[in-house]
Write a structure and sequence with these properties.
BirA Bifunctional Protein, domain 2; 2 domains; 7-stranded mixed sheet; 3-stranded antiparallel sheet; 11 helices; 40% helix; 19% strand; rod-shaped; binds 3,4-dihydroxyphenylalanine
């Protein structure tokens, strides 16, 4: 092949020009980094094509031109690699840790007010020796009504009040009160018995601010020799003062329940106005909190306990009612709506 001296000159010119281009090429992101690679280092890039021209350089000059080309290639590759690493490390930082970002808040749950009050009631009675017993929410007629001395035609058995699951011989229903658990305990245990039974109960009622089709109760039962009405009264006074403060007072009004004789309804002095009279206590200074009485001998006998040897008292209270008085919530529906704005106001105290 004929060698023209101008070729050599042009070759050196070209190398110098591309060197300037390599040096001047601005790499700021992944897109122009890739463009740089294609322009200079790729198989169809400028540097590659110069290496192709090396074939035409005479042997004596090959060493010099080859060295110039090699230096150019190293220059391009170094620039490519260093920018590549720089871009990768900044994009890594952007993705993983940005110390200037505001922290993310996470929400901590709170106890449901019914759970808080149930635990408090349990703890108050635990301290005087009552243990927790539980029973099924789907009950038979015997435990919910018959064993508790409800006459066959008692209005509480009516379809109006009870959610029946099965009518007739094997009658099953959602329990209407936790008094059913006291029957189960007495059937399985001989006195002394000192138990409380918290749980959910159901009644066929239209839902409103003052009534709901399900709610929660705590039943209490104490059976031993010589248990008297005075024991009942003192236990309930202890409960009221533990729950509502040591100034709380109670009063008992005669009442009727089929399973207790005598029976009473218990009021606590109004915690909202300190018994001075307000809207909540309807200016009476008293708020009703529970029902109670001495266990009817018929109930003891039905459950297999000798009523000539043992006596006992029982009481039953609504957890929603106690919660209403403690936290001044006046709409029963709030307890089951799961509105976070309502629930988060109750911070655990236990
Ligand atoms: N079971 C009654 C109710 O649901 C509450 C109750 C009243 C329970 C008097 C008792 C009691 O143990 O003696 O309304």
């Amino acid at each position: 092949m004929t060698f023209f001296p101008t070729f050599l000159y042009e070759m050196k010119e070209k190398i110098a020009k591309i060197q300037q281009e390599v040096l001047g090429f601005e790499i700021t992101d992944q897109v122009n980094l890739e463009q740089f690679r294609i322009n200079f280092l790729g198989s169809k890039g400028e540097i590659k094509s110069l290496f192709g021209d090396l074939k035409s350089v005479p042997v004596e000059e090959k060493k010099e031109i080859g060295k110039l080309l090699n230096d150019l290639r190293v220059l391009g590759e170094d620039k490519y690699e260093s920018h590549k690493q720089g871009l990768e490390s900044t994009s890594f930082q952007k993705e993983s840790i940005d110390f200037s970002r505001p922290g993310e808040t996470f929400t901590v749950g709170s106890h449901h007010p019914i759970s808080l009050v149930r635990s408090e009631i349990i703890s108050i009675f635990n301290r005087i020796g009552f243990v927790v017993s539980e029973g099924p929410e789907i009950e038979d007629d015997w435990h919910n009504f018959s064993a508790l001395n409800f006459p066959p035609e008692h209005p509480a058995r009516d379809m109006q009040d009870t959610f029946f699951i099965e009518k007739g011989e094997n009658e099953m229903a959602l329990r209407t009160h936790t008094s059913s658990v006291q029957v189960r305990v007495m059937e399985n245990q001989q006195p002394p018995i000192r138990t409380i039974s918290p749980g959910r109960v159901y009644r066929n009622e239209a839902i409103s601010a003052r009534a709901h089709c399900f709610f929660h109760q705590v039943e209490g039962l104490y059976i031993d020799k010589n248990v008297s009405f005075a024991d009942l009264k003192q236990t309930l006074l202890y409960f009221a003062q533990e729950m509502f403060g040591e100034k709380a007072q109670i009063r008992l009004r005669p009442s009727y329940f089929p399973f207790t004789e005598p029976s009473a309804e218990v009021d606590v002095s109004c915690t909202i106005c300190n018994a001075k009279g307000c809207n909540v206590c309807k200016h009476t200074g008293w708020l009703e909190i529970l029902g109670c009485g001495m266990v009817d001998p018929n109930v003891l006998e039905a459950a297999g306990i000798d009523s000539t040897v043992y006596t006992g008292y029982a009481f039953g209270m609504g957890i929603e009612r106690i919660t209403q008085l403690k936290y001044k919530v006046n709409d029963l529906r709030l307890y089951s709506e799961n509105d976070v704005r309502f629930l988060k106001q109750f911070t655990p105290s236990i």
